[in-house]
Structure formats: C-alpha cells, structure tokens
C-alpha cells in the first residue's frame, strides 16, 4: 500500500477524487469517503470533493444507477453536482486520486504547470488492500452489477485511505505514529 503525500497545512487534509465525467466512480468514492471520514471523527479536518476530467455533465446529478446503488447501501447520494478538474485542484488538494490510468493522465495533463502536482496525483486503488494499483472500472455502459462492483472496491479502498489519513494527520501534528517514530 502507498502512503499519502504530506499535508500542506498541519492538522488538515484535502482529498480530490477524479474520474471521467464525475457522475459514477468519483462521486461514489466521494460519498463513501466523506461518510467514512465523518465516522472516524475527521470531518472537521479532512475535505473530500470529486470532479471529472471532462465537461459533459457539469452541474448535473450523479448517474441514477450510481445514486441508487449508494442509497441501497445506506449512503446519501443526493448532494452531488458534477464538477470539472482544472489546475486549481492541484493547488487546493493534498492528493488527487484517479479512478483509472486515463484519469491519472488527464490529471497530469491539466495540472502540468502546477509545481509539485505530479507527486500529488495517484491511482485511487493504490490504497486497495486486495488489488493495489488496480483501476476502478467505469460502470457507465454496463448494468447495475458494475455499480455494485465499484461500490465494493470503493468501500474497502476508502477504509484504507481513512487509515492513512489518521496516520498522516497524527504525523503532521507531531504525534507518534503506530510505528513509534516521530516525523519532526
């Protein structure tokens, strides 16, 4: 498993989740990660947002199948509105997590002029305990089972991301981490 890039501000961390149109994968990850961050008591210290590399769905709601899958699993998918990645995301977020290699290339292209942005962009599933570095498949052109598969990947990966956030925030505040060492 990969570690998170260091936070820019002590005690705070901002996570961006990126897919193609910001209506399926990244908003599902946004909803689940936001829920898990809140459950871990980190909502006041961790910011989570999602966006897409394309502009097809700007301002639109999440795909109805993605929203239904989340709702059935007990999440609130009602607040999402699609946004598009631009260079400012690399300046505002500590890490930009791409759903697949194409999204990762899109992040790197859009943020090429932002100093240090390349080190802050990585695959979402770099944190997946089952298949580290795998891609989250795009369920858009498939059936409901694709959205369920994505939710399973997202849930287990977000658990690992939350664990990494706990460690990163403790290190940034100068606390001792689970390995017994200080970052300072």
Overall description:
- The structure is a single chain.
- The chain is an alpha/beta fold and 184 residues long.
- Helices cover 39% and strands 11% of the residues.
- It has one domain: 3-Layer(aba) Sandwich (Rossmann fold).
- It has a four-stranded parallel β-sheet.
- The longest helix has 29 residues, at 144-172.
- It is globular.
- The chain starts with 12 loop residues before the first strand and ends in a 12-residue tail after the last helix.
- Residues 175-184 have low confidence and may be disordered.
Which structural traits does this protein have?
184 residues; alpha/beta; Rossmann fold; 11% strand
In CATH terms, what is the fold-level topology?
Rossmann fold
Largest sheet: 4 strands, parallel
* Overall spatial form: globular
| Ends distance | 23 Å
Overall number of strands: 4
CATH homology superfamily name:
Response regulator
Mean pLDDT: 91
CATH class: Alpha Beta
Secondary-structure element order, N to C: EHEHHEHHEH
- Structural class, judged by helices and strands? alpha/beta
Count of domain modules: 1
CATH architecture: 3-Layer(aba) Sandwich
């Amino acid at each position: 498993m990969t570690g998170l890039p260091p936070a820019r501000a002590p005690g705070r961390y901002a996570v961006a989740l990126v897919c193609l149109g910001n209506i399926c994968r990244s908003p599902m990850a946004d909803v689940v990660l936001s829920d898990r961050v809140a459950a871990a008591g980190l909502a006041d210290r961790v910011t989570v947002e999602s966006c897409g590399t394309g502009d097809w769905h700007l301002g639109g709601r999440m795909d109805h199948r993605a929203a239904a899958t989340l709702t059935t699993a007990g999440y609130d998918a009602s607040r999402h509105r699609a946004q598009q990645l631009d260079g400012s995301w690399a300046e505002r977020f500590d890490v930009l997590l791409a759903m697949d290699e194409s999204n990762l290339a899109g992040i790197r292209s859009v943020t090429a002029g932002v100093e240090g942005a390349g080190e802050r962009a990585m695959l979402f599933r770099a944190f997946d305990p089952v298949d580290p570095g795998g891609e989250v498949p795009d369920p858009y052109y498939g059936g409901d089972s694709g959205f369920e598969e994505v939710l399973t990947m997202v849930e287990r990966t977000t658990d690992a991301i939350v664990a990494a956030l706990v460690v990163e925030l403790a290190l940034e505040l100068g606390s001792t981490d689970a390995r017994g060492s200080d970052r300072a």
